[in-house]
Specification:
single chain; alpha+beta; Aminopeptidase; 30% helix; eight-stranded mixed beta sheet
């Protein structure tokens, strides 16, 4: 059984803190998602309006197989928001990973890698997930490299996208 979406759903390492999104995060998420350096990596790359974000969030709250997280860098006693990702379309012991981004100034510092490792360990232990898959644009070499370093294996390449999967 999957955990309820409450403030209690959070986990961390010495360097990274991960928690579920809340309504208070919506404007930050929208700002990140609409950034020109990020937006083109999403399959739907249109600008998201405030109204669209609220509609999505209200639907998200009803989906019992979708968990969107914010991960933050832990620096001294401060949490610095660093990005977001999700486990969704959870069916039994299989989940999709995606809706991922890292804020521009914190890219290429290993934060995303560490946050993903923590998320996947938690998914296995507390969500009882055994396999995770994702889709990524085949032109997004940096993301593909990170996903491969995390243990994802390409399973269904196509001209524009690559499906990858990982056993936890």
């Amino acid at each position: 059984m999957l955990p309820e979406k409450t403030a209690d759903v959070q986990f961390f390492t010495d360097r990274v803190h991960i928690r579920l999104i809340t309504e208070n995060d919506l404007e930050l998420l929208r700002f990140w998602r609409n950034d020109e350096t990020t937006r083109h990596f999403f399959f739907n790359s249109a600008i998201i309006s405030n109204e669209q974000q609220i509609i999505w969030y209200n639907a998200y709250k009803r989906w019992n197989n979708d968990y969107q997280f914010i991960f933050s860098l832990r620096k001294n006693d401060e949490l610095i928001p660093a990005g977001t990702f999700a486990l969704y379309n959870i069916q039994g012991k299989v989940a999709e990973f995606g809706r991922a981004l890292v804020v521009k100034q914190l890219r290429r510092k290993g934060i995303f890698f560490e946050a993903c490792k923590c998320l996947f360990e938690t998914a296995k232990k507390h969500f009882l997930i055994e396999r995770v898959f994702l889709e990524v644009y085949s032109s997004n070499g940096r993301a593909i490299h990170v996903y491969q370093a995390l243990g994802f294996i390409p399973s269904e390449p196509s001209e524009s996208k690559i499906k990858m999967e990982k056993t936890l």
